[in-house]
């Protein structure tokens, strides 16, 4: 090991216990089942500063995953709640299921208006920041379009109920493929929405179309005054089918994106930037377009959900059947990527952080995978400081 690597290894070891303690402290508190929370306050921006200890130490999966739940049907998105429960969307049926804090699943509600066809259906879920969310946001395919709806969420673990949907943003193009579908609240409290080109590649470069874009709106669906294109929800464009978004400790926004035949992508998202589709795919070196910071052969990735812990990015891969772990350099490029669980659990659809662990959804029952006993499953993955030999430099 070189002197610099040895020094870095010593530094990693010195703060490893601190990192894991900080991560564990982020775990949700034990639920209180005696009171119902129905607060309707406006979501506040999430803090952009992750603990310096967490940000300083790259992380990686530690050992094999633990199976938390089985018997899910084409799950697409999972969103943890502060109470200790989590909500899971099932694409084809439009059903939302609750994973209870003590384990076990219960059906909450089928979202009205969901129409499954091809890759469409009930897709991404998100909740605004707060001690107990009063509203659940969902990306759904309807008979006419893709849209984001907001549903009142009341109750406590084991008895959550979801009310009638209210449209936040509608008219997003739909297709049998490339529906995008990931939604998340950013550090600024705004709602970010990934929209695919829905099979019409020209939409990605057309700023009058919402297809092939990442959108940014207020929690009520209004266009923020500081968006890059006045009066437009478009935040970035030139995308084919982005399905993962997240922010690191510095507030940098990352997005995963399906390529066509050659290159899948990991991008740093900048407001107003053009990511090139359909003119270019992958790294092109053309100054007119923003290149990805990492690319993979489509057989190795087909990247969907994305989670960021500190400055480490985790990406669930479908066709690649692995969890990509990406370490950035001071929150930017160049990056180093390492695959974990290659083929072990089949197709992976979503990954979220849960205290000092990751939760991962498999996706083998969506018609493209090979279902295994117990599929689909919710997995739990412990985290540990990364092996210094794997890191850049």
Automatic annotation (TrEMBL):
Chain spans, region Disordered: 30-52
Record's keyword annotation contains Metal-binding: no
InterPro entries membership: 6-blade_b-propeller_TolB-like, Glc/Sorbosone_DH, Quinoprot_gluc/sorb_DH_b-prop
Domain Glucose/Sorbosone dehydrogenase: 72-368
Ranges annotated as biased composition (Low complexity): 30-43
Leader sequence segment: 1-24
Record keywords, A-Z: Signal
SUPFAM superfamilies hit by this protein: Soluble quinoprotein glucose dehydrogenase (SSF50952)
PROSITE patterns xref list: PROKAR_LIPOPROTEIN
Protein's UniProt name: Glucose/arabinose dehydrogenase
Source organism phylogeny: Bacteria, Bacillati, Actinomycetota, Actinomycetes, Micrococcales
